[in-house]
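Run Glucose-6-phosphate isomerase through structure prediction, thanks.
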Amino acid sequence: MPLPKINPTKTDSWEKLKLHFEQLKDVKMQDLFSSETLRNENFRINWEDFDVDFSKNRITSETLNLLYNLAKECELTSAINAQFAGEHINETEDRAVHHTALRDFENLKPEVATTLKQMKRFSSEVISGEWKGYTGKAISTIVNIGIGGSDLGPAMATEALKFYQNHLEVIYISNVDGDHVMETLKPLDIETTLFIIVSKTFTTQETLSNATTIRKIFLKDASETDIAQHFVAVSTNLDAVKAFGISAENTFTLWDWVGGRFSLWSAVGLSTCCAVGYDNFKELLEGANEMDVHFKETPFTKNIPVTLALISIWYNNFFNSETEAVLPYSQYLSKYIDYLQQAVMESNGKSVDRNGDFIEYQTGTIVWGSTGTNVQHAFMQLIHQGTKLIPCDFICYTESLHKLKDHQQKLLANCYAQTEALMQGTYGEIVKNNFKNFDGNKPSNLMEIKKLTPKSLGKLIALYEHKLFVQGIIWNIFSYDQWGVELGKKLAVKRLQ
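Sure, done. The structure for Glucose-6-phosphate isomerase is below.
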């Protein structure tokens, strides 16, 4: 079943949203809060350990109803069903988009079960010290060699779950910059280092260049037969992997229905699995699956990814806000923005619709941000008093992992204060100095999560995966190809010839 191919701007809901926008564009959120005593309760979704407050947005109940109707007119439900059924919704490449199947333990594909079993065995051997290097020493360092989805996803997850990490040091090399490669390798003991080469085709220029250079350095002291003890691969190209010197039993497979930027749930996440252990990695997958079920089965009005996606479309296509900031108040999520940028901007950066026609409305949003109170001493000034309207997602955990209550109270107080200041500003106050005037009326969502665990992290990552999917469906674009990226690769190869 192909995806619907509906131009959103030709729907009745879009026309009604345009009229509604003209009525609402100058309305102040401060006034909405004054007139709606239950606004905080009516504009929020509580689900498991997530509390999502979207009351501080320039929306009313009518706005939401029109947006939900837009989703219905664009046949979002049928699109969701097509994705979860494994239909070839990536039509330009004739591929399924089925990364949700990687974490569906109730209906686990046999090939996924086999790979997970292989990952469990391998990670257990490395963590326990049973896996030895060529000189008989146990592995203490893992280096993941990949780029794009083969780097950003596992690097983000490993950093986010640092509290749960074992004794293994895990390092990521992605950039083809040779200086970076050499500086990264400089402090490492090759005898106790394991390299994971992640490349679906085993032809990615940056990854293979880095892997080949590292192989040469390794062979200065070791032999060809020692490669099998220090190099493993995540790839579908078994011949190329074998030629590199990696044994078949140390090769972890991928499938064409798993897109790179949604692949951390697969063997691409092997480095994360080794860093935190298989049980924690499985919890990460289980959390993502719980969000999958919520997304697939929950009515739009109580559906977190659907609601956040529609609010984002409201700002992007009616207020002409080109960017949105994601602001996690947890340093553990320091790599989350990098991950989101690829997921969102590589997916929805399209100017041709699913009918093959050039688009005359705005599509993909620009995602940016940083962590915690750092943002308050950096770019928040522009969001507060600048001329651009920048919707914000604030993400925080109500419970700290290291139980430093004083720090956590201060962290949360700053998070809550920022959302309040953006909304309220100095509205209603007499401010004689224009330089100290804050208009407020700046939108934000507040996502409170009880605690950062592998399971809650899985839910959070999957939430934004589904959010960008909804946006792509409404905008009538194919979110799962990336022909612009491919063009750059081809031109780089031509320059090297």
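The first strand starts at residue 44 and ends at 47.
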